[in-house]
Amino acid sequence: MNKILQRIEQIKREGYPLDFGEVFNNAFENYKKIAIFAGSVLLLSWFLLLIIAMFGMVKIIGVEELKSMKDNDFAIFKDPNNIYFVYLQIISVILIVLIAPFTTAFLKMAQSAARDEEFKTSEMFSFYKWPYVKEIILATIILTLLDTAISTAAVSVGVAFVGSLFKIAIALFTLLTLPLIVFQNFTAIEAIKTSIAVIAKNPLVIFALLVVGFIGALVGLVGCIIGVFFTIPIVYSINYCLYEAIFEKE
Predict the structure, then answer these.
(1) Domain total for the chain?
(2) Would 14 be classed as within a structural domain?
(3) 219 versus 137: which is more confidently predicted?
(4) What is the pLDDT of residue 60?
(5) What is the DSSP letter of 61?
(6) Inter-CA distances, 148 with 75, 98, 130, 131, 143, Å
(7) DSSP H stretches of helix in 61-159
């Protein structure tokens, strides 16, 4: 049995200590190293995706129909019984799946920063290679479909708040899924199951770290909305440093 499997078995038996301050400080130092580069990549990527999305909507829906939707505050996209709501959900899932290997590379960027190693721009596409891409996409499909199904069901029965709670729970307990796939070569199912089992041993501290990371990411909205692209990387730094603290500290 290799070290990571031994560590997981130990965690399942004994749990593990997790120092909020230590993890956050490490994550903040890590973030400072990647903020500019990661933020620039996020900004450029978002800009390109926005152009593609706008072009696609014009081609598929039409300019006049979009103007009508805008006048009605795009209400049809919020109605679970409307076909456009279904289209939006399908497109969202496809888009999330396609860009998942790209966004996963931010974890690799955080690892390189933690080890003071150079991270090249070409590495942003490194997880589109086999077998990473298969497991990342499979894990993303499973979690996204689960999230979408619960959210849609909650909205349909008028309890959107419950759906939001389930979304938060899914995000929390599967937080270690992608790090385990890219750093330990776990399969998607193994990574999801292991993430749930490990985080269940210490959920409160990890949830607190997630909340702080979310608040930190939103700081970029203050004053200049574009700044959020340069604060979002704190989430990836926290994710990596949390993985490191749990599995690699020893």
Answers:
(1) 1
(2) no
(3) 137
(4) 61
(5) T
(6) 18, 16, 27, 26, 8
(7) 63-71, 83-114, 132-156
